[in-house]
User: Fold this.
Amino acid sequence: MEAAQVLLGVMWLGLTLYALLGGADFGGGLWDLLAGGSRAGMPQRRLIEHSLGPVWEANHVWLIFVLVVLWTGFPTVFAAVMSTLYIPLTLAAFGIIGRGAAFAFRKSSTELWQQRLFGAAFALSSVLTPFFLGTVAGAVASGRVPPGLARGSLVGAWVNPTSMLGGVLAVAVCAYLAAVYLCDDAVRSRLPGMAEVFRRRALAAAAVTGVVALGGIGVLHADAPRLFTGLTHRALPLVVASAVLGVASIALLWLRRYLLVRGTAALAVAAVMCGWPVAQYPLMLPPAVSFRQAAAEPAVITAVLAVAAAGALLVLPSIALLLAVQHRLPFERGGPYPGR
Amino acid sequence: MRPALAAPLIAAAGPAGGADLVSARTQMALSLGWHIIVACLGVGMPALLLFTEWRGLRRGDDDYLRLARRWAKAVAVLFAVGAVSGTILSFEMGLLWPGLMGAYGQVIGLPFALEGIAFFLEAIFIGIYLYAWDRLSPRAHLLTGVPVMVAGVASAFFVVSANAWMNQPRGFLLEGGRVTHVSPWAAMFNPATPPQTIHMIVAAFMVSGFATASVYAVALLRGRRDRYHRLGFLVPFTVAGALTPVQIVVGDYTARFLARYQPTKLAAMEGLPRTGPHAPLSVGGIFVGDRLRYAFEIPNGLSLLVGYSPDAVVQGLDRTPSADRPPVTPVHLCFDTMVGIGVLLLLLAAWLAFTWWRRREIPRSRLFLWPAAASGVLAVVAVEAGWVVTEVGRQPWVVYGRLRTADAVNPAPNLWAGLLLLVVVYTVLTVSTVYVLRLMVRARPVAAPQERETA
Assistant:
């Protein structure tokens, strides 16, 4: 196995973790948006805040990690994607600002109107950011990003059926993951009523995600035939696995096995996340650019892999510690910021 | 990387339209200039916070503990805002400067990868530190803050070393217009890395110290001279004040570095048109045509500073072709601003040191307290001015001597729209951040940020 392949795998692992962890944080924002009026929605918003508070910043770093590995390991791909998809990526970047800043501001503000204002900004940008990132994925997967600087269509590259599918699917997946995780978090926080609320939402989100994914088959067949072929041939086992895990998750949700469904739902999403690169391997920018053509010099790739390995030794145990601390945090009626 | 892909990237699409280049540069300047303020606080505040918490725990001193809790709340907000405003920068590297990243991304990627790891540790442990305040023993809690402090300083080192590379590009060869023989470690440890990283890390601690002290200087001016407010002033001001003379020495070292490695930038900073001995030290003035007008000149000053002798030859702008010169007036005036503020802060630090030595108290004079209350803003202005010197002084190059800024910019049209959007978003962000921080300053001293009142 060559070093560039390993780095590609490491980058994809990072992206998958971002989808599973950061994605659920965005989904939390969506449920915050749909939680209802200030008073009726308060308990749900508190639970979402309780679940996101300590971890969203760490989850967010996976995105930075992916960006840095991409520009170091495959610089021409980074330059091509960023320059052609300038518009959706700028909007996603502003969404990232709005989400993170507004979330922190809401926790630190005291008046209801302040909390509503910051809460709305947090929730709206939580929906827009995954949508635009999804359109970027759709643009790359459907072969609309050519190599070179801004050589693709600045609008058409991300306003097209596959990109829209990518955007909607990203939002749906985030919402689904968040609802599933929140069921488990609600039980841990001894809020059985809240678990029921999010169970219903998780089931609804699972149905929506399933419909979007099924409809997506038709979209890809018409709009991105090469990707469709890849998904129905080489990546077929992963697609089937994702479907099976998805159905299993619905069954487990029905049975209220929240901890188990946390695992199966995450695996279902991970299978989709891996299906995409397997379908287009070894291309990074279909139809022309393979990862070998785009790879940096071996000395660079070795150095980044060494840093990633050393970093993993430090970061992974730290994440375990953070999750352990988070799971032991008591849920308080007043929320995690009582000293207002 | 295959030559067929790399070559057109280095040649790029030729100079982009003037308006788009100006938009991209302004957008980068605004978002970097914004982030650097929060980043300084992110690097320096954890150390102040941990020192205060440690002191409070060791002596069972409630005033110290109350300060630590108050500062932790501010750090929570600042870290969130810093994390997202920093993310925008990594997007902008590609959105605005794909010509730089496509060609040289692999050369400067290593420090960013290291910074990614440091940022990870910072984000993880700040979550633990803030949220587990009352779930851990005091000693364990203090320990969870240590990685935040170390990773913050390490992040600053890594990111600034990447910027240093843009000033002193090393660790690669250019063969027929494409990058080969990349040595990422040599790129990271380039000659500009030691002066730039030290200068910036010290600056971050100064900004944190002076900014925090400013808040309490305002309280002292309003007559709140109880021990809590005195300590809130004294601890950060002492740290920042003690670092001020150090920073002046580091600044001198940096200027000497420039004299040897980037003489054009030094000539622009000093507004020196002609090469020769007896170079004067010029303060203020405007560069018109090819000379500096209306400046206050200290004869032989620059020759003495650079070469310890009035006969020392200092290189002027005349050795650089006019197409390769940076704009002189803004670089020169920003340099003067930075140095002037440094001297003012040194005087304030000396004043406090003197009264403390004689009377063990903070000067009561408003002549001290007013500028002390402004010291945070002044320190920020000095950092911004310093970055203008570094960045504008490197122009017209984005990679010194190798790649022009105009050749690195995204050739996509209408970049001004992104700038417009950024101005709107950052205006809202600035207003909200200041507003939320002011809410915190005004609130009564309270329990810890994330802990229960009973803790």
